[in-house]
Amino acid sequence: MRYIAVDIGASGGKVLAAEKRSDGFIDIKKIKSFKNIPVYRSGFLTWDIEKIFSSILDALKEAGEADYVLVDTFGVDFVLLDNADSLVLPAVSYRDERTKSVKDTLDAKMLYERTGIQKQRFNTIYQLMSIKEENPEALEKAETLLFIADYINFLLTGKKMCEYTFASTSNMINLETRAWDDEVIKSAGLPRSIFLPLSEPGSIVGPVSDEVAKEIGYKPTVMLSPSHDTASAVYASLASDDCAFVSSGTWSLVGALLDYPVTDERSYEENLTNEASPDSKIRLIKNIMGTWLLQKLKSEYPEGTSYDEIMRNAMDAEDKGRIDVSSDRLLNPKTISEEIDQMLLENGYSETEDLAETAKVIYLSLAEYTVRMIDKLEEITGKSFSTVNIVGGGAKDRYLCDLIAMLSRKKIIAGPYDATAIGSLLFALVKTGEMKEEEKMNVIRSNFGYTSYKREGEGV
Prior knowledge:
It comes from Candidatus Ornithospirochaeta avicola. This is Rhamnulokinase. One of its GO terms (molecular function) is rhamnulokinase activity. InterPro entries: ATPase_NBD, FGGY_C, FGGY_Carb_Kinase, FGGY_N, Rhamnulokinase. It is a single chain. The chain has 460 residues and is an alpha/beta fold. The protein folds into two domains: 2-229, Nucleotidyltransferase, domain 5, CATH 3.30.420.40; 237-415, Nucleotidyltransferase, domain 5, CATH 3.30.420. The protein contains 17 helices and 19 strands. Helix 14 (355-381) packs across helix 15. The two termini are 42 Å apart.
């Protein structure tokens, strides 16, 4: 059988295909990549869903025949549909500032104890509350909430479902019952009726619609992936009792894979989040800004400057200090270098003199914060991690991986780079019985390989 994974990240999408050959080898290939750039509509920063879906159809057409299609996206964001299944509002991005006025209106400790999700102003619950406050008639018109991945599945098939790992990011799923928390929804003043029953990853959504089949030239079945991108990425990682993970992309998610949630005072104070994994485990995670900071900085460089040039410039630049890479101030600043300079001044450092020094601040701040959070995870969970597996696009960055290896004094294993799409594909292969779960790492190694970075004292 042949499988296609559609991975929509916060800055771009990619499509990969996997197939088990007659000799038993599982072959994974990249089909297509495309950009995903938010646009302003009606005063809001929104996702261009029409363009995203058009790019997906183009990629599916280019990929050719397949048996299954799986879709994942970034978390928390959603659309509201009316009784005719039309959009009530545009698909607003989590980077929009509409939630500023409501993020402190609920009891944060109560929310954390019940849902285990960190307090972030862009959480689904706060986005819905901002709609209730600023545009109540829109919420009144809403019949159904679909998270972005579920909405893409709906556009493909005409079937509406709500996948569990994605829903766990909403701040409205009860940790104990693994179902919508009616008390939390009531406390936020939201209509319970818009939330669909939860479906486990691996559930079948259905065949693509006749219209989509005509467009792409075949009629695959859509299967629910672990549709929150981090859930799929960690499925492709080496995460274990001895190995922490860093899912490094637009966001950097530093975490541990556990059999149980952690909602004690220490995890609450550190603002750690407990997100669902497809294997009934919990990802205890700290969200920090990731390569988004370098993406924003790149826009200030001359056109054509590569990330490799930015990395090499940063390596040679003077160290000007550190910033808090978990700060909301970095969500969507107009000019990232100016915001970083202001944060440096507030921390008692001097301003940077050029963009290379700004890049150095980003690299060192990301690496130090990552290592601090790995130490915190060890302290809170009682585990000791000898190894850290960095997956996602950030795993390509040699300087960042070197810094984390040097500062943590742990073995760093980088890869796979396309972990999210690969995780979706491996999940589907396991679900259909074409692969055993314990074979995952061999499949990744034979298709892509890993890069190791040595501990401090062994040289980097």
